[in-house]
Fold these 4 entries.
Entry 1:
Amino acid sequence: MNIPNTLTIFRILLIPAFIVTYFQVPEEYFYVPAVILVASGLTDVADGYIARHFNQITPLGRFLDPVADKLTMASVITCLAITHFPLRWLFGIYFVKEITLALIGLWMLKSWRNSIPAKWYGKTTTALLYALMFIVLIFPGISDQVLGWMIIPPIAFIILSFIFYLKEIKKHKN
């Protein structure tokens, strides 16, 4: 088990910690889930950097890293959508995209070894989602109207990345 894979597993273990703290910490400790989210994001950046720059890319890491990404995003978006109505739109669009891509990927690619690596539009979408989620965590009383406007860029990039990844899957299959 190398360092990047260990960091990825740690990131997966942060998911239940985030969920528990999001729903259980007293209101005056609202920043605790935000700190966990930042730790998860930094761990994601660190494991990718270490894997690439120190030639520690492994088949396990190529499989686990995107799984950790998807589980983290799904968990955080779900938690926030429960307490912030406008995020239910983001939740719905995100889940449709992820489930559709996963099913198409399984059907067409037949193997996680043939998976398509992250592209700039996927990374931009992830960055926008992390920024939005962090802001919502730091400002838990944010109005629905402001939040409704704030979800537009992440939703646009979710849709854009969905279209681009569909094109990549089609190209990869051919």
Note: The two ends are 35 Å apart (CA to CA).
Entry 2:
Amino acid sequence: MKNILKFGLLLFLSVGILSCKKEIKKEVDENINTYSLDTNSALIGWTAYKTTAKKPVKGVFKKVTVSTKPAKSEIDAINGSEFSIPVSSIFSNNKKRDSKLQKFFFDVMDNTSLLTGKIAIKDKSTGNLTILMNGVSKNLPFTFTLSEGLFTLTGTMNLDQWNGQSAIISLNKACLELHAGADGISKTWNDVQIDASISIVKN
């Protein structure tokens, strides 16, 4: 009888200990921090160039949609995120210029009402943006920093990779005088610098 009671007590204690461990593990799992993107904080800036002296022209896209998902780290929250940018949201603080960029550059391209793509992180400071533009999907290499929850990247697009030659010629014709420098030569460059940032929040 005593042996039966002892066995019952040991069984009861074992079940209690296992149950306690499960509860502790559950609490630990629930307290693990996750991270996601603050999609409202996304900023997309661009710098194009004109004249043979390569004078910069800066602007932004005022609208951008970025996907987000809970992740175990800040980098994981960025990696694999997809984005969509309506080209109609281009803004250079000059309405006439913005209208020309829309009509004589983007509208010359195939199916380019939106710029879409995906972010891929390679290592601690580099990655690729896969960008679909003009019916062409290509990688744009970038460097990035991640500090205090702010992810910032910079990269340079070679528009030739997206078959952008016709759009560049079209824009240069529309801006022939405006893109002429002191030497009288009108030029629109095929490289565009992209600068973007987004905040990462702890959930």
Note: The chain has four helices and ten strands.
Entry 3:
Amino acid sequence: MHVLAEMFFRFFCCGLFAIGGGLATLPFLYDISEATGWFSFQDISNMIAISESTPGPLGVNMATYAGYRTEGLIGALVAPLSLVLPSVIIIIFVSKILDRFKTSSVVQHTLYGLRAASSGLIAAAGIGVAKTALLHLDALQGAATDVMAVIHWKAVVLAVVLYWGLKKFKKHPIVYIVAAAVVGVVFRF
């Protein structure tokens, strides 16, 4: 039960402070991984891939995955519920007072600051995902000085091609997710 209580607390804090949505939870997930060892950084990359490929909010999907990986079915319930609980509490509270104060300059400046904070959190998450997906982190840990040994070239090429395809053809993101999965299987990434 101790692990479930800690899981509740950690994901509650994650939900309380990860302003900006699912990707903003990534720095917190990295912190949870480092502090508890419940899952690895590689597991977080898998969480992102699975969460992006399944219906539902990214942060909730990742919390469900992390909870299940750590404590099975009960963890798969505790982690996402504790992640969304702060949002439910805050939304109820804010909805009661926002109409009254929405023209306030303090409220406007607060919202502007929160947008900047969420941009920073999402950028940090994107950099973390790019490091895990595009670099051989184990080569960075060692004494490797050869750039060719550090960069995961197949993944970089795939990312560039998918980005180009997304911008050029503007298909639904699921098309690119499926294409990436097929390429990963065929070329054994």
Note: The chain has a mean pLDDT of 87.
Entry 4:
Amino acid sequence: MTDKQKIFCDEYLKDFNATRAYKIAYPNCKKDNTAKSAGSRLLTNVDVISYIQQGKEKLKNKMEITQERVLQEMARIAFGDIRKLYNKNGGLKNIQDLDDDTAAIITGIESVEEFDGYGEDREQIGYTKKVKMADKNKALDMLGKYFGMFKEKVEVNQDKPFEVNINIKKSKTYS
């Protein structure tokens, strides 16, 4: 492996952008289309593939990313209960009061403060929070596929023959 290929690999491992990585490893390349094509070709080189795989494995180990941990996070999202975000009065709980499983399903919170005074029960009026949740359907789909719960192929048992009856009716045509 050349020094430039190693630079390409190290840069590619940062964001998996082959065009950007190629332009850094080979600074004389100015055109994006050229860098895109050349970077794509480099990704088929056996030495480059091996180096990138080793780099990914090192990152995975360093970050302690395991199959079990990833599945646990998907399960948290898939089975998260939105009701746990709210207190008994229907207001959003303080973020510090959420359990870890509930906090894991939140991908963002937007607060909009427009103070309009206090209501009869002394609650502030005009304070809004928008909560963005992780994609529950996608997490369920990924878990189901991982565990083989969804069959994408039809299996045919050839040991047991089956019959297919097709009835075709002739229709009359009038001109």
Note: The longest helix spans residues 46-62.
